[in-house]
Specification:
globular; 11-stranded mixed sheet
Length: 194
Amino acid sequence: METLKLSDVLDKPGVRRRVVESMRRGDVIVYPTDTIYGIGCDAGNPASVGRIRRAKGRDAARHFSVIAPGKEWIWENARLSKLNRDLADRLLPGPYTLIVRAGRSAPRPVVSPEGTLGVRLPRHPFTDVVSEAGVPFVTTSVNVSGDAPAASLSEVPASMEKSVDIAVDAGRIEGRASRIFDFTTDDIKAVRRR
């Protein structure tokens, strides 16, 4: 697992370019968000999504959410009513995951059997790197399923490290997981995490 400082990824063009290329290639990356550290990859790459699933020991029935490369990507890949789109436009970016009806072009490895997709747009500088890569990026906590999420890179489970290509270090993050809202109907509801 190669470790890079967030400041280098944001401020050094060569380092940033390497991370963007790595994201597009399907590498698995640990990165900071506005809530907690996430682990992700190009959501359209089934092999990479499988690597994350195995590293977390996550049940195949539970699908991963994605960080969208921008609002336009959400509008193109989710089926939202005008009411829900307007609300999503006001909420994002922010510490929220929106469960939406997936459009036909949404990446299949992260669409649930019910046809839904979790989308995020964190209010964090690393989101600009995802946007530059231009790919929807898996976002799930850095932990073995059922354990507490890592608040720093030193807490990344050793069993997960071998599955990670790059880790972006932003120091300790004392946040909480994003709040989840069901946007599949106009009767928007908060969703409890399992």
